[in-house]
Design goal:
- This protein is an alpha/beta fold.
- It has a single domain, classed as TIM Barrel, CATH 3.20.20.140.
- The chain is about 50% helix and about 10% strand.
- The chain is built from 16 helices and 8 strands.
- Strands 1-2-3-4-5-6-7-8 form an 8-stranded parallel β-sheet.
- Strand 3, helix 7 and strand 4 form a beta-alpha-beta unit.
- Helix 1 runs antiparallel to helix 14.
- The protein is globular and about 55 Å long.
- The relative contact order is 0.14.
Length: about 350
């Protein structure tokens, strides 16, 4: 395996050997929004094509625009960014470029959200978007060896009735690249309970289930996702610690939390990495995974998240490995696929140790 050393991944608090291991190690990404991961060069091309933002002439200009005062401001900038996606075929480019970029971090497997419903008001066809996302991800898989399954984000702001329409449009693509459903969006305004029937129907059809909860809303949002939606995983779950009973429930049932530390700091959900609860949850035995969420929106990466945990929360190499295998465990892969991935990761770790004795 070629060693991975992304130049922007630097953390002076991390021992050089551990830093090298984190950059090189095989990774799994379970909470990634395709549209929030568009490489800056690709998004800049879309912006320049539309020609409505003369002040954005470089990647540096774009990164300056991608800064946020709070979560609501982040959603505002997210919506602005979406206006530069003008054709269904753009999603083939997006999927290929996002996954190619991830492969450079030695990410082996991805379960990525995408939200085609956000583009209906722009006149784009949801089935065509789904088709082109699948084509793009298949092209990246063929070119780089990375694997990806897709999760359609119904976006809770659109309501459960629209969600049911999206489910109908998505169902023909189940097991053809599409594997699951989720709800992102304005969690603080739209609780999970109204989506119970939608999730019940999605499960009946064979979709795997996750939901954003406990990011900007409190523990009642997480309980709703568990009890009403019967989710298999929870996106974020930062605020679980506000309810000891919930923490114990998550521990006993090993419900995976798709945690996104850098994202939570960038959007103001957490004050700093040092105050992020992932260390506490990990030590208490909760099933936590590490994910980048919207790395292009934060000028970050999955590698950067792991480096931050090592530098600010003292995760050791063995603990980093455990976080990685948690992601395999929490994935929607079959048991046979998980076993094969465990074996491949252990082999790659052993080869790395041999090279770095």
């Amino acid at each position: 395996m070629k060693e991975q050393h992304p130049t922007k991944e630097q953390n002076p608090q991390v021992d050089s050997r551990l830093s090298r291991f984190i950059c090189d190690m095989p990774k799994v990404e379970l909470h990634l929004h395709m549209e929030g991961s568009i490489p800056a060069e690709t998004l800049l091309g879309f912006i320049q094509r539309k020609g409505t933002e003369p002040s954005i002439r470089s990647v540096e200009d774009l990164n300056a625009r991608l800064t946020y005062t709070d979560f609501s401001h982040f959603i505002e900038v997210w919506t602005w960014k979406n206006t530069f996606i003008q054709d269904e075929k753009d999603f083939k480019v997006i999927a290929r470029d996002v996954l190619t970029d991830l492969s450079r971090q030695n990410v082996k497997y991805v379960e990525s959200f995408f939200a085609p419903g956000d583009y209906r008001r722009m006149g784009l066809s949801i089935p065509r978007i789904i088709k082109y996302v699948i084509q793009g991800k298949e092209k990246a898989e063929a070119e780089t060896g990375i694997r990806c399954n897709l999760i359609i984000d119904f976006v809770r702001d659109h309501g459960p009735e629209i969600g049911m329409q999206r489910l109908e449009e998505a169902t023909p693509y189940l097991d053809k690249g599409l594997i699951g459903v989720g709800i992102g969006g304005s969690e603080q305004l739209f609780p999970p309970e109204p989506y119970e029937e939608l999730y019940r129907e999605a499960r009946k059809r064979g979709f795997r289930l996750t939901a954003h909860a406990g990011e900007v809303a409190g523990t009642e949002s997480m309980w709703g996702a568990i009890k009403a939606l019967d989710v298999e995983r929870i996106g974020h779950g930062v605020r679980a610690k506000e309810d000891p009973e919930l923490v114990e429930y998550l521990k006993q049932h090993q419900i995976p939390l798709e945690m996104c530390p850098i994202s939570n700091v960038k959007t103001g959900v957490c004050e700093s990495i040092k105050k992020h609860p992932i260390r506490e949850y990990f030590d208490e035995g909760l099933m936590v995974t590490v994910n980048a969420d919207d790395p292009a929106m934060f000028n970050s990466s999955l590698t950067g998240d792991y480096l931050a945990l090592a530098g600010d929360l003292d995760f050791t190499q063995e603990e980093i490995k455990r976080l990685t295998t948690n992601s395999i465990d929490a994935s929607f892969l079959s048991n046979a696929e998980k076993a094969a991935m465990y074996s491949a990761f252990r082999k790659e770790w052993a080869q790395w140790e041999t090279r770095h004795r």
